[in-house]
Each structure stands twice: as C-alpha cells, then as structure tokens.
Amino acid sequence: MRTSQPRTIYLSEYRVPDYLVDHVDLRFELFEEGARVHSKLAVRRNPEATGGPVPLELNGDSLTLESVHLDGRQLTTDEYQDKGELLIVPAVPDTFELQVVTWIEPQNNTRLEGLYKSSGMFCTQCEAEGFRCITFFPDRPDVMARYRTRIEADRSMYPVLLSNGNDVDRGVLEGGRHFVTWEDPFPKPSYLFALVAGDLVEQKDAFTTVSGRNIDLRIYVEPRNADKTDHAMDSLKRAMRWDEEVYGREYDLDIFMIVAVDDFNMGAMENKGLNIFNSSCVLARPESETDAAFQRIESIVAHEYFHNWSGNRVTCRDWFQLSLKEGFTVFRDSQFSADMGSETVNRIENVAMLRTAQFAEDAGPMAHPVRPASYMEISNFYTLTIYEKGAEVVGMIHTLLGPDLFRKGSDLYFERHDGQAVTTDDFVKAMEDASGRDLGQFRLWYEQAGTPVLTVEDDYDEAGEVYRLTIRQSIPATPGQSNKKPQHIPFALGLLDGEGNDLPIRLAPSEADAPATRVLELTEESHTFEFPDIPERPVPSLLRHFSAPVRVNYPWTRDQLRFLMSHDSDGFNRWDAGQRLAVDVIRELSGHAETKVDPRLIDASRVLLTDESADQALVAKMLQLPGEAYLIELTDQADVQTIHHARERVLKSLATALRDELMACYRRQQTASHYQITPEDVASRSLRNMTLAWLLHIGDEEALELALEQFRNASNMTDQSGALRALANSPFEAERRQALDDFYQQWQVDPQVVEQWFAIQASSPVSGDLEAVRRLLEHPAFDWKNPNKIRSVVGAFAGQNLPHFHSQDGSGYQFLAETIRRLDDSNPQIAARLTAPLTRWRKFAHVYSEGMHKALESVRDKENLSRDVYEIVHKSLA
Ligand code: PHE
Ligand code: ZN
Question: Would the N or C end of the chain have less CB density within 10 A of its end CB?
C-alpha cells in the first residue's frame, strides 16, 4: 500500500504565480547514457503577486541536480534546497537570471512523460506536468515564456534535431556531433515545449495562407513509414484552410511540423509548431489501415492543428480549465469532420460514444464537472467529460447563439485573450459580450457534474387543437455534489403529422414563419409548452440532433419509433428511434428464453437493407444494433451475461430472417476502383462488412466462401480486416484459425497492423477467451513498454470483450488487476487508464460487482502505488 495519501489540489486555492519567466534558454546534450540539460531563465517578480518577497520555488521530478547559478554566481548547497519535487531558492532579487543544470536518463524513462526514447529516437511529452521531468521550472500553464533551444547530439545517429519555432542556427561539433538551435517567438507555457532527435525522413509540402504567407509543412517519420504520410498531409492542409474560412484563424509560424512516434501514452500533442503524434493517429495507407483509421487521423490532425489557436495562442490559466482548450477544440474538430464527410453520421458517432462512455463516467465514482473543482493527479482528468461533454457544452452555446453570433463570440475571445492564459469563464464571457445573451445559468454546465434526465409528458387537446408538452429536468447526485440546480438546456423539438411531415411549431396562435424544428430553452425544473394550431395528435421528435447531452425519457410506442425511423426529417433522430426500438426489443428478451424477437424490428431492418434510394451512410449506421456497453449503461444492476445473450439472440434472429436480403445487400456494394474515403464508399465497405459479419455469425456456408475470398483478394485493409473480424467471430474454427495465422504472416513487419490483429482477437467473444488473451501477452510481437500494444490486447479485452471480461468467476477482473499492478511502476498513466472498467462496479449485479470490488482492493494493496492509480482506486472504493 502507499504510505502517504497524495495531496488534493483545489481550484479555490488558485493564486497567481509569484515569479514570471520571460525567457528560457535551453541547451540539451544528448548521449546514450543520459542527457544533460542546461537551462537559463530570465525571471522577475510577478507585479500582480501580493505580499512581501517569497522564495523562488521550481517544480522537478526525477531530476539529478548538478548546479545552480544566480546572476552568474554558483550557489552553494546551503543557498538552495533540493527537495526532489521542488527546488527552493530562498533569497532572490526582483529580477534575475537563474541557471540550472540537471542530468536525466531518457533511455530509462518508461513513464513516457518528459524526455524519453522511442525506437531509438529522443522525444518529449510535457503536457500536463512533464516539463518538470526535464528541468526545474515553474511548471504551470500561466507562466508563459519565449524559448530558445539548442540540441546537441551524435550526427549520424540523430541527423534530425527539432524543437518549437524556427531553426536559427546549426553547426558541426567535435566528436562526430552536431547541433541545431530553435527559437520560438511566441510566449508559451512549458507544457507546449517539445524536442525530437532521431534518424527520420521527412515529407515536405507547403501551404499558402489567406494573407499570402508561405508555410513549410513537414511530416517526420522513421524510414519504414515513409509511404504512410500522404493522408495526414492532406488532412493538415484541409484543416488549415478550414480554420481560415470558418474561424478566420491563420497559421502564425513559418513552419509546421508533425513527428510520428511509436511509444506514446495518448493520441497526439499540440506542441507549438511541432506536433508529436502516436503513430496510430497519423500514419496510414489504404493497404494497411482501415477507413476508421483514416477518419480518426483526419480529425486528430485537425484537432492538434486547431489547438494552435484554441490552446496555444490562448491557453489555460490552470489545469482546472483544461476543457477551455479541449472542449472547444473537440467541438471545432467535429465541425470540421462534419464538413468533410457526412454530418449526420459524424453526429451519430460522437453521440454513441458520449452516451456509452461519458454518461457512464458521469454516473460513476470519477464523475466530475467539465471544470473540476479538485484533483490529485491531473493526468486522470483527460477524460470524456473534459473532452466530449466539454465539446457538447460549447456546441450548446453555438445552438443558443446561432452560427453568426457564435463566430462573433469566438473572434472576440481570440482577440481579447491572445497571448493569455485564461479560464472557461473568460470564454463564456466573450460569448456573452459578443451576443448580448445572458449565459449566467448556462455556466452551471461547467460546475455541476452528472447527466441531466429529462422526463417528457404530453397531451393533446383535440377541440382546441393544442398540443402540450411538459418537460421536467433532474440531475442525479454525483460525488461531492447533491441537490443540483436546474440547468439551461437547449431542447430542439419537431412534431410529425400522420404522414410524417413536420408541423410548423408555433408558440402563439398564427405565428408567422413558424419553424419545423424549434429550440426550446429549458431553465426551470419543469416547463409546460403549448403549441397551438396542431390539427392532429403529433408524434414528437425530441432533442433533435442531440441538442444537449442529456437523457430523454418519453413513452414512445414501438409503432411510433418505427414511424420516426422512416419519417423524421432529422437524420440523427431517425437513427435514435431505431436504437430505442432495438434496445426495447433486446431488453424484452433479456432473461426470457421463450420470447420471440418483435417482427417490427425485423421489418424495419428489412426496409433498411433493401432501400437503395436511402442515404447508405445513414443506413449502415442504423443497421448496427446498440452495443453491449450501451445496454449496460442503460441498466441498473446489469447482468452482463444475460444482456450479451439477449443481444446475440436478436442478432441471430435478424440474420436468419433476413438471410437473403443480407446476401443481396452484400453483393450490391460497389466502390470506386481506387480507394477513396468518401461517405458513399465508406458506407459501402461498412455495409459489406456488417452483412458478412451477421451471416458468418449464423454459420452461413455461402458467406464463409465470400469472406475467405474477400479476405484473400482485398485491396484495402477495411475489406481485409472486416473479413478477418467476421471470421474471427464465426463458428468456423479451422478457417478462423487459418485466417488469423495468414494475416499475421502477411503483416508481421507492420506494428500498426499487428495491433489490429491483437485487437481483433482480444475483443472477440469467440476467439478471445482469457486463455487466448494471456497467450497474446506471450506473443513475440507483444511489448509491455508500448502503450498501443497494451491497449490492443488488455484494453480491447476489458473494454470490448464483455462476456469474457465479465466472466462470473472473476478471472477477467483478476487478470486486469494483475496487469494494472504490473504497469503501475513502469507507466502509471496507462495503468490508471486501464483501471476505468473496474471502477464501474456499482453498476453491476452482485455476482459481478463482488469480483470487481475484490480486484480493485488487490490493486489498492500494491506497494508504492502511483498517485495516478491511487486516486482512481480510492475514489472508486469510497
Ligand atoms: N493535449 C492533447 C490533445 O488533446 C492530449 C494529450 C494530453 C496528449 C496529455 C498527451 C498528454 O490534443
Ligand atoms: Zn486536444
């Protein structure tokens, strides 16, 4: 067990920094046995800090201090205190220069925070608090400085030396070494610092900005990945253009660089002018990566690029404001993806993730507001709530203001706060000031955790032709918060007549220009709305486009849901009606072996499968049954095995009843002869893979032949891995083993494909029982030091292979606990992330929750538990 409890940090304790750093001069000497970091800081007392002179305190982590100089004079050891996590210099003047030399060991850094090595190259990760692993520094985002960075290293091993800004000097040194100096003219917080040194190849391109400036674009990769950079480069140029057109934001430096690294804790990082990416989030070619990867890459490249304004030019005052940059930037990247592809499909994908995973987080022991009030370890707060719910909150402001006022607001925000470190409140204030709208109550979205529940009741007055809706909101209690105040909720409503047409929605009789979709604003616990001139009882289409991150309860009948599925003018709600119908049918079957699948669900699926005139991208989404994780999220005291079996039965009934339609749909799918990621082609490949998967699931012999043929002759990875996945989940044991072996033989040289191969098996209820998953960990391609490999086996098993992970003997939980304990010393961030599935134990029936609780206790009892895992385990056992 950990001997001391980590300290909790509170937002209410925020104080401005006592000292500011105007300039940072860094010199890195990189060697195989370590690195020496020389730092020269131009420091001055912060004029806004109150009180008398105070000691200078600099953060540090795992550093060996070699020397300290103040204004050129070396300090003796009694003139400063090296407390490991803090370097204290008690007596300093108001303005001074501090020089610190530290020694670090990047080659032994398995936490992947600070400076570390990934397949032979040096790279950094400084957000949130990694810079203090490089040198002593006031490592907080409201200390913004200009950086000059000189990197020295062996010239043949590390020909490429990169940092933020522009390269201003380079030269040859003795002993086969060389150096490059970089200067970043924009003041930035330390978390945006980056350095890379390696033997890399570059892909070069250029972009001309709206004002005619020429920007050098470069993507650096290991030589073996040289053929995987085109898609990221194209995505980058599209993102740069889009940000100019939609937000009026132009790029500011003369060069923009992206580097791909294999070992990375997260997806990617927006370091100023030098974005560093997890290989899996930037490298792709059609033969080896799927459509999903192509789309993910486009949106992440855009996300990191957009941070240059929403995050870097305007940054966060403190880490409680993390959603200031993340929520806004996710909102921006989803607008971008919607503009590049299918808007409705993008919305569906975002909401499906939000409702499955963020709602679960918001209902669990780690629930926290979009602007948290406290934390122990900030790395634990890079959450779906900060990112996805934060984006929804910005999206609601967009809905309330409309696109023009929202743009005025974002212009004002960037203009007012350029070069500053600010708060989510500053963001809302800019939106208020630009629009004249009062967002006072709206701010509760940042302060209160928990997903609001809307209960909707209606009645229809036939004589008066008035339709009445009563909407009640309640917000469940979350850790540390009970008795919540009602929130300001934009609620988009449509009303359908008997033919399925939208009725004009009036708030007063004979109101002119009444809209077909009306955004109602809920501010009280209960609202009753009256809509006049409604000639017949309508079918309500509630929360169109998912206009707020809330749960909606309304007693739709199954016939009404079918009706909405085919008639709602809101594509999102057509999909949602289908999901609700499917959930209802699956639930009806849960634990009732004799109940038959409602023929209305089968008919609805048949219509979707055969209607060639419908938007195939939407059809592909609508045919997917709600996932097990979502079904669990909707259930109290969830019984995983029962839910799994009920869903399986529905899937099998559908596949059996619609066998011929599935086959015809499969054969109908045609894509362009060369690979492209248009919404049409993506939908087509998705329909092929889905129909194949359903048919293989019921052991169809003809489908087996088709799958084998598709597997062998595929010209792109979406088709090949789609067939493999279908085979891996089929009852055809010999073929499935053969295909898995062949795939590995074909792709073993490409680690990104090997990760897909791991994930397909670890997430498969058929191919991935616990024993098989343990064997994957012994596989020569598995690597405990590589987060992607861990995620593709352990993460995929615990997150997607629910029947095996939730085995009632508790073996899946024990396995996960073992893994967490093993990783806690080497990479606490990854260990903490893997803990999430266990924290939800209260959600499950006793047979499960007991085992999950035990597993959590066994993690809690580990020696020297990291702060990361400590926080999550203790909060979830509390
Ligand atoms: N700031 C990164 C992003 O969202 C995420 C990240 C956080 C990466 C912490 C690494 C470490 O774009
Ligand atoms: Zn981000």
Answer: C
